[in-house]
Amino acid sequence: MRQLNPLGSSSAGVLLVSFLSLVQISKAVKHGDFKTCAQSGFCKRNRALADQATAAGASRTSPYELDANTVALKDGVLTATILKNIGEENVELPLVFSFLDNGVARVTIDEAKRMTGQIELRHGSTAKKERYNEAAKWALVGGENFHKDAIIKTEDGVTSVAYGPAGYQVKITHKPFSVKFLKDGEAHVVLNERSFMNIEHWRPKPEDSDGNKGDDTWWEEAFGGNTDSKPRGPESVAMDITFPGYDHVYGIPEHASSLSLKETRGGEGNYNEPYRLYNADVFEYEIDSPMTLYGSIPFMQAQKKGSTVGVFWLNAAETWIDIVKQKTNVNALSPERATTQTHWMSESGLLDIFVLPGPNSSWLYKQYGDLTGFTALPAAFSIAYHQCRWNYVSQDDVKDVDRKFDKFDIPYDVIWLDIEYTDSKKYFTWDPLTFKDPETMLKTLDKRERKLVAIIDPHIKNDKNYAIGNELVNKGFGVMDKTGKKIYEGWCWPGSSHWIDCFNPAARAWWKSLFDFKKFVGSMPNTWIWNDMNEPSVFNGPETTMPKDNIHYDNWEHRDVHNLNGMTFHNATYEALKTRLGPGKERRPFVLTRSYFAGSQRTAAMWTGDNQADWSHLAQAFPMLLAQGIAGMPFAGADVGGFFGNPSKELLTRWYQAGAFYPFFRGHAHIDAKRREPYLAGEPYVSIIRDAIRLRYSLLPTWYTAFHRASWEGMPILRPHFVMFPDDEAGFAIDDQFYLGDTGILVKPIVSEGVTETSVYVPEENMVYYDYFDYTMYNGKGIRSVPAPLGSIPMLMRSGHIIPRKDRPRRSSGLMRYDPYTLVVALAPGGAGGVLYVDDGETYDNKDGAFIHRSFIYNPGDKTLRSGNLHPEPAKAAKYVKEMRDVRVERVILVGVTDEWKDKKTVEVKQGSKTWDAEVKFVEGKEGRASHVIVRNPRVAIVKDWTINFA
To answer: CA 420, 421, 424, 425: dihedral to nearest 10 degrees?
Structure first.
């Protein structure tokens, strides 16, 4: 790679940065660079408390008690005080219990002394004295619709509240404090059942000891050559959360683990470490691990037959989560359900828990989206194929790649530039030698409606000749060191760097101004942005990130906001791009982020970071992406081909076949990896990869429709089996096959070497599944063997669905805008149905009604296929409908017809007051394949109501 050479650095500094960069590109993950629970003081303390409580069992007395005299309920909000008995003193912990109309309940516990500033900071710190209480400001967009008719009753030391939809109830036991969440009398979630609750209250540091009870991590904590000064002393919060009768829990990304989360207290096949949430630059991460990665969403879903619930732990500090599963009778021969017991531990902040009652996945995801927002409906180009590597070395290189894609008839929409395009790692600049005329390059891309994504990271080069860096310092927009008086300096790609503090509203406004075309000279309207390294990554920092006692805007410590940091940065970039063309010309931005938190789905897509070019990482991607969808951030992908290393041609080909089903579909490679653009693979691999990418483009209408549903209802784009079939326990742990949106398409990409056949689990007894390509039929529930030679993708269509697609190959998705549609109808005895959503894919005009939303229904009773309007206010769509009036359906394919269709030559088509005939061709199925008919050019408009009668 290019040697880093920070201007103005000493020779020693140059050597240090060069060394650090070499470490970054030449070594796999170093476990010694990252803490274990035993090395993280608060995790160690809380795990020890859990061990003590478990060993003591019923004989242990929890120190937490609800003061019954303080309980009050008004307008759906219960307030009270929890007392923590520590001998002669009771620590007051204010409790707020909020009940929402949709059945969601929120439990917030604070600490009176910290709230009122009755504590003393050490080391002359300027940090806030309160517990961090602003995570909700960043993560939440809802949660204020209180159930004002909630009913309270207290008797025998238990306060009960009935609220929300019929049957929802909370029972709060006063002593020891615990909470049960019930529906129809059955407990689904229990807080503090095992007495692991722990609020580390403020206390002065003992003068005669370096620690407390022999543990020196209470007051200072050293790791990786850095000492955390901990000016507020110990302040962790912890709670055990039990899901009675729930076998499986999912979510809490990001981890390279299975979809159904594993136990973390040892045992065969389990982990010995808790799942960790602490956004970090984990270089060349390993798979099957609870180790922290780049992003954190503290949302967990629990599933049992016929029921699902969720928990959202709103805390942005370092967090660890233990999971164990218990049976009432471990020797029982019956298939008794386990109870899943979890233990959540965060270093600082409030104890702030949302309990989401479900009762099914669609309700749960809607409840979570109402709290944190739904994924933004993306710009249409961004769900097509992206081509990237570190790095395209010049504008001529970019133009050459662009030409080669056209030469080999491979569609793509976006080409990417990594850090080398800049002038000496100074963002908002271009290398004057290799990118001397970026506008010409961008205009070349624009001719075929293609885009450029350029990387811009939060570390700003410390260089006296860099105007943006000087502005950052002079305006005070950077993160400060632990004194709160000096801007923090660390090392990243530019060498000596400062970090923008996007918690500061003035800093965000400044950041937004930098994207003005007059400031970011050379960029154009088809330029979008990639925010990498925003955990933040600091090469010489503890755990490759920023010291926890650094100070952010309004004197919050970095420890409090660490997992939010990346989101504040990509939010600022999103807002900058949204209004870049000026007032009244807003466009949907595309921003890719590596670091994220709950709520990031509103403004960014994510990818799984620095994966490796091997089969295990290909296999790991789908469990990770399914977890992202469950946690409300479905616009997710993994580097196709693997970032590090050089994939074999078979691996590269299989990765493209899998990547065609990533919501975010991008090929990417490390600077030391060989060039691997799809057209370089040689035959037959080029043709197979081309087919996979074209398949993605053909199905873009279904992808966009799935994104639309996610944008208002929260349903994942890729749907696990337990979401589709919540009563089928045999599918609860499946994470290597999935359904695409509402299409009924079941996909199991090949992720192992040398495979020519695979096993697909079909979950239904009385439903036929058809092979997507040749209509081979698979009947009945169970494991089915599906052919999978290198040139094919195991892909089945569930009968009863209608799939809209576009079959004309184009160079980019923008050139497909007015292309005709094909409708594939997978027949079932009860008929078939499907949905299509279309808008301009670029502006926000859809919010004013400028969209097309159609239903397609096949009724077997009268053998008629109908198109109907789903738009609630069709008059608002008039202008857009006029623009799309010539877009038609060019073909209808009915799969699964009987022999009585053999003699059918024409069908009756009706649109408005006109009726005409269309030609029909019958194709007989052989060797286990379904027969099908093709209606050629029915000449119906996609924007109108019509019928095709097959009787």
So the answer is: -70
As beta bridge partners, residue 114 has none
The Cα 226–Cα 223 span in angstroms is 5
Q: What is the pLDDT of residues 891-906, one digit of tens each?
A: 999 999 999 999 999 9
- Count of beta carbons in the 10 Å neighbourhood of residue 31: 12
Exposure of 49 in the CB half-sphere (CA atoms within 13 A) = 27
- Please identify which of the residues 281, 352, 532, 543 carries the catalytic annotation: 532
380-461+524-545+556-570+581-713 and 718-949: identical CATH topology: no
Would you say how long the chain is, in residues? 951
On the 0-12 / 13-18 / 19+ scale of CB atoms within 10 A, 151 is exposed
* 549 close to 611: Cβ distance less than 8 angstroms: no
Stronger pLDDT, 83 or 326, i.e. the higher one: 83
For residue 95, the 8-state DSSP code is E
Q: Which helix (H) or strand (E) holds 346?
A: strand 339-346
> Are 672 and 418 in contact, with CB atoms under 8 Å apart?
no
Any idea which residue has 């025998």 for tokens?
156
Q: Which helix (H) or strand (E) covers residue 228, if one does?
A: strand 226-228
C-alpha of 843 from chain center: 23
Neighbours of 46 (CB within 10 A): 29
Q: What is the CA radius of gyration of the chain?
A: 29
Backbone dihedral region for residue 53 (phi beyond 0: left; psi -120 to 50: alpha; all else: beta): alpha
> Exactly one of 247, 535, 557, 839 is catalytic; which is it?
535
Kindly report the CATH number that applies to the domain delimited by 718-949: 2.60.40.1180
511 pLDDT above the threshold of 90:
yes
Whether 149 is a known active-site residue: answer no
439 has catalytic annotation:
no
- What is the structure's pLDDT at 87? 86
Cβ proximity of 619 and 736 under 8 Å: yes
Place of tokens 């199905």: 699
Q: Domain ranges in the chain?
A: 38-365, 380-461+524-545+556-570+581-713, 718-949
Residue 374 DSSP code? P
Per-residue pLDDT of 2-13, as tens digits, reads: 333 333 333 333
Name the nearest CA neighbour of 193 among 173, 208, 222, 207: 173
Query: CATH for 38-365, among 3.40.50.300, 2.60.120.20, 2.60.40.1760, 2.40.50.100?
Result: 2.60.40.1760
Per the listing, tokens 């080398």 go with 420
Both tokens of residue 147?
């159930």
Fold of 380-461+524-545+556-570+581-713: TIM Barrel (3.20.20)
Half-sphere exposure of 237 (CA within 13 A, CB side): 19
Active site residue 532: yes
Q: Which of 418, 610, 736, 771 is catalytic?
A: 610
For 273-327, how does the pLDDT look when each residue is reduced to its tens digit (9 = 90+)? 999 999 999 988 999 999 999 999 999 999 999 999 999 999 999 999 999 999 7
